[in-house]
Amino acid sequence: MLNPKEKCAVFLDIDGTLIADSFIIPPENLKAIKAARAKGHMVFVNTGRSWGNIPPVLMEQIKDFDGIIAGSGAMVKIVNETVFSGSLSNDLVFRIAEFVFSNPQYWATFEGYYSNYVITNGIRHCNEFQQHIGSMSELKKACEADEIQVIAMGGEPISEEFETLFADEITVFQFSYYADLVKKGLNKAVGIEKVLEFTGIRRENTIAIGDSNNDYDMLKYAGIGVAMANSQQSILDMADYITDSNSENGVAKAIEKFLL
């Protein structure tokens, strides 16, 4: 059972959880996070986004958190030290890219440590933080200077053919309009395990807050798994506690309930 008199750790999803309609964290959430840290607790972001896919405006706001788990467990940073890295191999990245080029109904974003690289296949656009990839040679050149932590793939649901081809190498987190692909065996719970190994915090003294299916593992693993009111039904069904939505400062209210 969580003991707020001991050091605890809070793990926060970003999209649909920590933020609402922009990349600006609501002041109520920041206030509660600051108060929890002032009591000696630790607060970590635990996101499906790669390090290079966290927008600069958001990175500036979370720079004083105790750490970041990125890419659904693909990288764990505590303060400024990387304590774990599980990036996708270049060979695997290239084979997935070849599949996408050969199946133009899909697009794919290769999310790296430094930047993001997109095979658009004419069905989506690059944003200002992404680089368009039009050939395998361009992707190989990009990967020479970067590490791909997660691949977002969309256009239509991931096919059985694709899952069969890569079943032994990746984990697929399917969302409504796209899927996240990470190295086999990784998930947000693995990221929490790495943090606990490094900090010595007990598993019982952890709180995980999220809203979608790639949060399932961390909510199940944590001492207390908190679902946002705006969560997918599967997350609402398995959570220990349901807080208010991301537009109603649900993160702040959960932290206040359990730690303040």
Give a description of the structure.
The chain contains ten helices and 14 strands. β6 and β7 (116-119) form a beta hairpin. The protein is globular, with a radius of gyration of 18 Å. It has helices at 14-18, 27-38, 56-62, 90-102, 136-143, 160-166, 188-199, 216-221, 233-238, 250-259, and strands at 9-12, 42-46, 67-70, 75-78, 81-85, 107-112, 116-119, 130-132, 148-154, 170-174, 178-183, 206-210, 224-227, 241-242. The mean pLDDT is 96. The longest helix has 13 residues, at 90-102. With 260 residues, the protein is of the alpha/beta class. Strands 5-4-3-2-1-12-13-14 form an eight-stranded mixed sheet, with helices on both faces. Strands 8-7-6-9-11-10 form a six-stranded mixed sheet, with helices on one face. α2 (27-38) packs parallel to α10 and α4 (90-102) packs antiparallel against α5.
In summary, what is this structure?
33% of the residues lie in helices and 25% in strands. With 260 residues, it is of the alpha/beta class.
